[in-house]
Amino acid sequence: MSINTNKQIKNQIFRDGVSQRDRFLKELEPDYVSVDERNLSDLLTFVQQYATKLNYYDESNTIKGNWSNFFAGDVKQMVTYINNPESFADDEQTLKKLSQPHLVLLFTFLLLLRYPQEQLKNLTQRNLDFYYQDVLKFTQKQEVVDKVNVVFELAQGEETHLIKQGTLLNAGQDSQGIDLNYAMDEDIVVNQATIASIKTLFVEKSYISLETIHNQEKKSDTGFEKMLRWAVGSPNQGDELPKFNGNAVDLEYLKNNIYQQIKTLEKTESAPVNIKNYIENQLFFDTVENLKYCLGIHERQINKDESDTQEPTEFEWQEVYKIIEKAYKKKITFQRRNTLKEEREKLGFEFMMKFALGHPNSGDSLPEMPNNYTTLEQIFNNITQENVTQYIKEQLYLSVEDFRKIIEIQGRTENQNWEEVYRLLEKAQTKKRNFTYPPIGRKEINNIYANS
Questions:
Q1: How many CA atoms lie within 13 A of 407 on its CB side?
Q2: Same domain for 266 and 215
């Protein structure tokens, strides 16, 4: 550690970051928006406007204009009068006008209206309190002892000084006049070493989405293929597209050998079986129709300068991005199910269940079973018991019907539909582990700046 010969301690050190408290958006504050935000000026303006809509009837029950004359006047003057009537003491004419009984009655009503307005302001907070405390049953955190950072400076002529753990440091008094004392967490030896400077780095990053990848190549063939490869490349994002019948596949191959065969089909369900399987199980599009749509939009983009071709709209491209992102998520789901398959084939059914639903971590034992049961077969044989049903739903994250289906398939000696088991288990695993799909895009570092 270097020795800082400058004895002056700087109170502020520049940080290119934001504290946890500062990250909170003011828009999320309960009082950011009120149910009724009208002030006196707004309410008086409303009264004047509303009065023009009300018919005035005279003694003979004949309409004679409206009620606007009763509330005519300068709104700013009225507000000033309501807040401080004495300000018009030297203006007898205005004071007399504003002190008319019907106006004073209105002004009094508007002042009293502030009380329900204040209650309405608390409506959002009350709703949050009800939701967190009564519905979710959240409780307040326990009080946490304050901690402070303390800077020590040696007295002149001292080289080192030991301050023992538990030593009390007085920080004055709080708002109630009670002494504030802080105890040292640990022993510390104060010496001549000081921090000379603090350096930080700021890393500038940008998020590259599917749309960005596509637009970087100006929606060309290259851009479309890069986008496809980033979503469903095999085995990893950005790799080549999966092979078809042993042939390497790029966009040109897709267009000439697959798209041309499905382009003219009225019903894409009638597509050749090998093409349908490739599109839905290797490119992971939900349907043949979805891939046909995406390639059709791209074809229109490439041929946009031709007289009989309409350039795709931004809305159509957004649909393409959604379809391709959905294929990306379907690929991840397939990989998760395939991992379950590998666990079962390598280590057996029980290990697969532990891998998917072990508690607290993947691979641990299954959650403790009720009634001292130790096997899933015992759970299955007593599936009608209430605490067993509760265990299946709350600990295994399965419906009773899904659990029954898994155990029955496992018990068969033939026609075992393991794909259905993987589907049900992956769904339960997603709930138990709170799994969320990673963003399809990527982050790139644009620059690194040194801050001091």
A1: 17
A2: yes
Residues 216 and 325 in one domain: yes
Residue 412 in domain: yes
- Alpha-carbon distance of 405 to 397, in angstroms, equals 14
* DSSP code string of 93-120: HHHHHHT-HHHHHHHHHHHHTHHHHHHH
Containing H/E element for 288?
helix 288-302
Q: What does the pLDDT read at residue 22?
A: 64
Note whether 424 and 402 are within 8 A (CB).
Answer: yes
pLDDT of residue 27: 75
Tally of CB atoms within 10 A around 219? 20
CA angle (90, 92, 94) in 5-degree steps: 105
For residue 247, give the nearest of 275, 286, 288, 218 by alpha carbon: 275
What per-residue string of b and e applies to 162-172 under the rule 16 or more CB within 10 Å gives b?
eeeeeeeeeee
Rounded to an integer, what distance in angstroms lies between the CA atom of residue 260 and that of residue 252? 11
Cα-to-chain-centroid distance, residue 428: 22
Query: What is the pTM (predicted TM-score) of this model?
Result: 0.59
Beta-sheet strands, E only, within 316-412:
none
**Tell me: the pLDDT tens digits for 63-111?**
999 999 999 999 999 999 999 988 888 888 899 999 999 999 999 999 9
Nearest alpha-carbon partner for 168 in 148, 184, 145, 152 = 184
Contact indicator for 435, 206 with CB cutoff of 8 Å = no
* Domain final position from 140, 166, 196: 196
**Residue ranges with strand state E in 131-246:** 161-163, 168-173, 179-183, 188-190, 200-208, 241-244
Tell whether 28 is covered by a domain.
no
Task: Specify which residues 202 forms β-bridges with.
Answer: 449
Share of the chain above pLDDT 90, in %: 70
Segments in the chain below pLDDT 70: 1-23, 452
